[in-house]
Amino acid sequence: MNEEDHIHSIGLWRHASSAPSIGGILRSRTEDFRVDEISKHPSLDPRGRFTLIRATLKNWETHRFITKLAQAVGISKQRIWFAGTKDKRAVTSQLFTVDAPVRVVELVGLNDVDIEVIGRTHQKMSLGGHQANRFSIVVRGCCDEHGVPIDSDEAKNRVEEAKKVLSDLCGPNAVPNWVGPQRFGAGRPVTHAVGRALVEDDPMGAINIYVGAEGPHESEEVAAFRAKWRDGCDANDALSDIPKHLNYERMLLERLAQKPEDPWSAIHRLPNSLRTMMIHAVQSGIFNHWLAHRLERGWSLVEPMVGDVVCALDKDGRADRSRAIIAAEHRLDWLAHQCRSGRATITGPLPGTDSTAAEGEPGELEKAVIHNLGLGDLDWSMPHRPSLSPRGGRRAATMVADGLEVTPSPSLSDMSLGERWTDGPSEGERWSREGGCLRFRFELPPGGYATSALREFMQVPTRQYG
């Protein structure tokens, strides 16, 4: 799938800012992308069943870390709880609760992992239960729209100009709340396609996509393995050639080899959080398409229209669907004031079994987006697998990048950066090794993507976000 087809498939074919952008590339080295989860500690109790830890990970995918941690302490992956999935190519710090004794957890030794035992607790971390994520991200190799390098001062001026444009459209320090490309698969964007197959009761189709779909930058060994599966080999044959690091593919194929007549049993070998993420990726694609079409029509993201679903924002900046109203003509001015002051937000659709739909023109747009994606007939109750059925809801159209600070960052020697940097830009990419570097610092509410904020300033092909 080429870049244009990819961004259209996940709804990221628009930008809100019309200001000159800075280009550049993320994750030239892992340390350039830092994420610190801000969470309230569960109450500690020396008699608590669970061990509370803070894990700092370098270049670890969250689910893979949980798998390795579970193996190290001798428990199931289902007995480790956390608040949010973080970026892989990053340094991340977050809380986990582990159903294992402190003395066992203290002995865990994994490469590029630092585990701090905080104490015992009776409470589990819950998905989405954190308050915010704090980011520190370096954009390297800034350049203009023609690939001509620009220095850090010019890049910062462009960011300030874009902030003014976005402020008018989204509110102070706010940006469109795009669901970032990593939600759909950072290295291989197939998560939404797998999720769609699951919702459509096609578990074998989901397995075929997950195991066999090509990735744009995979090794020859992995590419050959996936091609072999697409050519029709059986699970046992595939297992004889599977690359060692493809853990989830191995889980699927091992179960499929045991019970070829029951592909759903293979799907259920995957972590519940990963299965849920696959379903949510379908909803996320719908939201992105809705947001892109709203911008395409020139509709505001901060001044509601009649029929919009407007939700109050909770203390952590998330849309509170329990306080949702349909915008009426006589309340538009008041609602616009609430949205601009950061107390409320226009919302977009996350379809499910219990989701509120907009009315009027906004409602027609939502229906058209879902219909045009061929998803109008999906049964979100998933009677074939109700345990995976998404409740649905609404997602804020914008998010505030709290405390947004942009400063020049020093250039580093090529030796300290990754191979991708030293190789230089590929065809179609927009960055320059001679360009300046900027560091962005900000906090986002749970569910907000740093790449979604940065894409309005960078405006580059998705692969440059890493």
Describe this structure in words.
By secondary structure, the protein is of the alpha+beta class. It folds into four domains: 127 residues, no CATH class; 88 residues, 2-Layer Sandwich (Alpha-Beta Plaits); 84 residues, Hypothetical Protein Yqey, Chain: A, domain1; 113 residues, Pseudouridine synthase (2-Layer Sandwich), CATH 3.30.2350.20. It is built from 15 helices and 15 strands. Strands 1, 2, 3, 4, 5, 6, 7, 14 and 15 form a nine-stranded mixed β-sheet that branches. It is globular.
For the structure shown, list the relevant keywords.
466 residues, alpha+beta, Alpha-Beta Plaits, nine-stranded mixed sheet, four-stranded antiparallel sheet, 15 helices, 15 strands, 20% strand
Kindly state the percentage of residues in helix.
25-40%
How many separate domains make up the residues?
A: 4
Mean pLDDT: 94
How would you sum up the major sheet? 9 strands, mixed
SSE order: HEEEHEEHEEHEHHHHHHHEEHEHEEEHEH
